[in-house]
Amino acid sequence: MARPKGLFRPGEGERPDVFRFERFFWSKGLTLVAGVDEVGRGCLAGPVVACAVILPVDCIIPGVDDSKALSPVEREGLARQIKEKAVSWGIGVVGPSDIDQTNILRASLKAMKMAVEALDPPPHALLVDGNQPFKSAVPLKAIPKGDVLSHTISAASIVAKVYRDALMVEYHSQYPQYNFAQHKGYPTRGHKEALSRYGPCPIHRMSFKGVRGGKEG
């Protein structure tokens, strides 16, 4: 297998196995490969949350690669399994104020770096979802659609989503008029109607077009 350069893109041929990218590093003795992903980029409220997960070599957790078809309860159970089986896992959270002060891309990369820094033991290499790699002291590969191409990134995506969903349920108790427990901050019709009626609350991202204007918009 030729050494990939910087950025992986899904090819048009046969779909690779879910450990294709992990094996590249494993074959070089880099056994602690962390998958990294974030959730919440497209939300109008709440933080962006990233997770980094290191799984044992060849550790398959059934259901991880089909998580989008699971119910929230099933996904929560899967997240528990991932954390129990992981060599290490870490979370990074960047709140609305930081998002507003920079931008969502920088905030997302910051959250991913925080998640990686929380890993103990630290990783030998990183597989990151998306096409925006960040500076890393260890080898890093960015993989567009990595959450469906890499088992380890898929695992990180699940843990990040469950963690963020739980945060948004907590925010619902503080700001019940927005119904964060249901839409988790995404720009649903109900969320937009609540913004129009009540204006933004402290966890809304004021720099986002869908939030600016509040009651007046």
Automatic annotation (TrEMBL):
It catalyses: Endonucleolytic cleavage to 5'-phosphomonoester. Coiled coil: none annotated. Its cofactor is Mn(2+); Mg(2+). It is an enzyme of class 3 (hydrolase). It comes from the Bacteria. PROSITE patterns: RNASE_H_2 (PS51975). Keywords: Cytoplasm, Endonuclease, Hydrolase, Manganese, Metal-binding, Nuclease. Manganese or magnesium. Binds 1 divalent metal ion per monomer in the absence of substrate. May bind a second metal ion after substrate binding. It is found in: Cytoplasm. The keyword Protein transport does not apply. One of its GO terms (molecular function) is RNA binding. HAMAP family: RNase_HII_B. Belongs to the RNase HII family. PANTHER family: RIBONUCLEASE H2 SUBUNIT A, RIBONUCLEASE HII. This is Ribonuclease HII. It comes from Dissulfuribacter thermophilus.
